[in-house]
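Pipeline run #58 for the internal structure catalog. This entry was flagged by the ingest filter as a single-chain record with no existing model, so it goes straight to prediction. Upstream metadata was stripped on purpose; only the residue string is passed forward. Reviewer on rotation: M.T. Logging verbosity set to normal.
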Amino acid sequence: MQIYLDTANISEIREAASWGILSGVTTNPTLIAREKGADFKSVIGEIAELVDGPISAEAVSLDGEGMVKEGLEFAAWHPNVIVKVPCTTEGLKAVYQLAKQGIRTNVTLIFNASQALLSARAGAFIVSPFVGRVDDTGVDGMQLIREISQIYKGDSEIKTKIISASIRHPRHIIDSALAGADIATCPFKVLQMSMRHPLTDRGIEQFLADWKARG
């Protein structure tokens, strides 16, 4: 399973990229807005210089025609740009039209398997089920990943990838991999948490203490 970073913060992306584990980046209007004064196109360009992989840039139009127009603009920015659209009927129209022009899409805000199936049939390159937000409703978000994975594996025509999104903690990453997700897109703080364990810290402290105490 690949790891993407879910942020528009260049410092976070630069640091995560230096670990050698980053395969892509996902952004959305909220994440872009957090980077005060940042120009959308410039941010995507900076990300592309740091990460050689898919970069999701999300349209804000609500109609299919508007999404296609935005998508064509975004795709012209860099070959790695993936056009992100919401899982609505208008979003499906945009996915279908963009796919016919060879432009890859990421269908976001997916909360059930039927949305994922229809998105794949429309030509989505990636679908983004939101496991954390599903958990918030009292339903197992990982069961959604398992259902989508099973459906996709049972249909040889579907090549769509599954991104486990709305990752809240390190266990979500492991569970996503076990459930069949192709990608987990994570906030930077979750990646940091994933590399921490008290026994690792204790082991380092013991090694250093033993080294200092040597003959």
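catalog note: Residues 198-212 form the longest helix (15 residues).
catalog note: Strands lie at 2-6, 22-26, 55-58, 81-86, 105-110, 126-129, 161-164, 183-186.
status: ready for reviewer M.T.
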